[in-house]
Write a structure and sequence with these properties.
By secondary structure, the chain is an alpha/beta fold. Helix content is 44%, strand content 22%. It folds into two domains: 134 residues, HUPs (Rossmann fold); 138 residues, HUPs (Rossmann fold, 3-Layer(aba) Sandwich), CATH 3.40.50. A hairpin with a 2-residue loop joins β8 and β9.
């Protein structure tokens, strides 16, 4: 399933280090190369100024040296390649991936400094809205990549969830980990029938049972993908993001895998996925459907 380099996006902040560590561990497991990408944010500047930034070869070499030193300090060895560019960070990262040779993108959830929060954090959010490849948004405090993890997979029972589940199953199998599947659906605020309101227990039954039936169908549809894994599924009666948060906490999820359902959508802030990336409580792998 896996091919291509692990591309680690960095702004050289402390909060970017977990993404570098996770990327190095993943690359070691897959026997892949690691490439770092650093983008000078030139949003709002004209193209000539971007060009002048790299006309001085000595300056460029000094930047690359600093990036390599940052990575060596973080993981204990140099990267296999370094890409330095200028422009809008999300656009340049997409452009690099479009060139080919990239299997995964690793990017930090956000930085701690003002520049990192406003630029690097928004870059992760923009990329999550339309992931250019399997994209790991790495949580600064929860980023294990080792055997014995608990991998979660959120599903809405669509084909994009099939793709996400296939990746989650591969992840769990590769790292001898358990797999937990979840679907979260909000209950109606109230249910009214002609003769009055149904009791609380009955109101919940129809919605939850329907979701459980869909979950059973989803799991059966993917029996071959799940063969041999320790798998459990769960339906949560809550709004999706709140449900994911409780699921991650209750199940001790290390990585949550989500499919990308809307390839035509450019933003991410209004989607469940976008809101999750803003509030996530564990590292998250976003899997494009095509």
């Amino acid at each position: 399933m896996e091919s291509g380099r692990i591309l680690v996006a960095t702004d050289l902040s402390e909060n970017a280090r977990p993404a570098a560590v996770a990327g190095a561990k993943l690359a070691a497991k897959l026997q892949r190369e690691v490439e770092l990408i650093y983008v000078f944010d030139m949003t709002g500047y004209d193209g000539d100024k971007q060009f002048r930034m790299f006309r001085d070869e000595e300056r460029r070499q000094n930047v690359e040296k600093r990036i390599i030193e940052w990575y060596e300090k973080t993981v204990g060895e140099p990267p296999d390649a370094v890409t330095v560019d200028a422009g809008a960070p999300d656009a340049q990262i997409r452009e690099r991936i479009a060139e080919g040779g990239v299997g995964w993108l690793m990017i930090g959830m956000s930085g701690r400094g003002a520049w990192s929060r406003l630029v690097f954090g928004s870059t992760a959010l923009k990329l999550s809205g339309r992931p250019p490849s399997p994209t790991a948004v790495v949580h600064p405090e929860h980023h294990r990549v080792e055997s014995g993890m608990t991998i979660g997979c959120g599903t809405d029972f669509t084909e994009s969830s099939d793709v996400a589940l296939e990746r989650a199953a591969w992840f769990a199998r590769s790292f001898d980990s358990t797999l937990r599947i979840v679907h979260s659906t909000p209950l109606p605020s109230k249910t009214v029938i002609r003769n009055g309101e149904l009791p609380e227990g009955m109101r919940r039954t129809a919605v939850v049972e329907s979701a459980r039936e869909s979950m059973d169908t989803f799991v059966r549809r993917n029996e071959e993908v799940l063969d041999g894994l320790d798998v459990q599924s769960r339906v949560i009666a809550d709004h999706p993001v709140a449900g994911l948060r409780s699921f991650v906490e209750d199940q001790g999820i290390d990585w949550l895998v989500l499919g990308h359902r809307r390839p035509q959508q450019r933003g991410g802030s209004k989607t469940v996925k976008g809101k999750w990336v803003q509030q996530m409580t564990c590292s998250t792998l976003l899997v494009p459907s095509g």
